Amino acid sequence: MIPSISVVIPAKNEQGNIGRLIKEIHQSLHAFEQVEIVITDDGSTDQTVQEAIETARECQCAVQVISHAQSCGQSTAVLTAVKHAKGDWIVTSDADGQNDPSDMPAMLEAAAKVTNPHFCIAGFRAKRQDTAWIRFQSKFANGIRDKLLGDGVPDSGCGLKVIPKQTYLQLPYFDHMHRFLPALIKRLDGEIVVHQVQHRDREVGTSNYNAWNRAWVGVVDLFGVIWLKHRAKLPVVKDVQAVTAPTGKSDDAYSNDDTI
């Protein structure tokens, strides 16, 4: 059984993209009973928020928009949305429309087959609609990351992922953490499932990333995640013993009562 779902989207200056994306998500997930869309507007200077609200009213779908006073970056924007999300499962997506919402139902079905309480269904853009230079950077960076972290994910930069909310909230927070979600979830002994998804051209606007902030800035974070990985402790509980208080005892039997 698939629980309640929150589609989480970090957005900055995505006027012209966000409305179409909301409509596509609503159409793709209409068969699921409890679905909401949670958008963090990360300091936009255009009409992203207004377009999102107007589209939600037009589609009659549940949408929350949380606005940051100033831009804080994608990882912080995602975490803000996750904290406000009402769903048990989080579906992450980029706001630029390059992720195809029609992939979400199959990813949710894949998640329903996982028995581990901690998991990540990670999208894999096998046929990326990017320049040859961007594809080269991504392939190079993903190869290094997988070699050092061993997360088994060929495309950690894909925005489409399915993660339990309670799992996400247990992850250590740091800027750029969204690039390392599978590795951080494996640190919790979670299960990672790679799911091939589609990739589309951006129709409106320009990317907020370039060669510097897409690849090389993550080097410091990479070594930080390696540090976290090697210091993770996963205790195995051997036994639990408990003594029950006698019937009639007050619930606050262990508190001190100094009342005279």
TrEMBL record:
<protein>
    <submittedName>
        <fullName>Glycosyltransferase</fullName>
    </submittedName>
</protein>
<dbReference type="GO" id="GO:0005886">
    <property type="term" value="C:plasma membrane"/>
</dbReference>
<dbReference type="InterPro" id="IPR050256">
    <property type="entry name" value="Glycosyltransferase_2"/>
</dbReference>
<dbReference type="GO" id="GO:0009103">
    <property type="term" value="P:lipopolysaccharide biosynthetic process"/>
</dbReference>
<keyword id="KW-0812">Transmembrane</keyword>
<dbReference type="InterPro" id="IPR029044">
    <property type="entry name" value="Nucleotide-diphossugar_trans"/>
</dbReference>
<keyword id="KW-0472">Membrane</keyword>
<keyword id="KW-0328">Glycosyltransferase</keyword>
<keyword id="KW-1003">Cell membrane</keyword>
<keyword id="KW-1133">Transmembrane helix</keyword>
<keyword id="KW-0448">Lipopolysaccharide biosynthesis</keyword>
<dbReference type="GO" id="GO:0099621">
    <property type="term" value="F:undecaprenyl-phosphate 4-deoxy-4-formamido-L-arabinose transferase activity"/>
</dbReference>
<keyword id="KW-0808">Transferase</keyword>
<dbReference type="InterPro" id="IPR001173">
    <property type="entry name" value="Glyco_trans_2-like"/>
</dbReference>
<feature type="domain" description="Glycosyltransferase 2-like">
    <location>
        <begin position="6"/>
        <end position="161"/>
    </location>
</feature>
<dbReference type="Pfam" id="PF00535">
    <property type="entry name" value="Glycos_transf_2"/>
</dbReference>
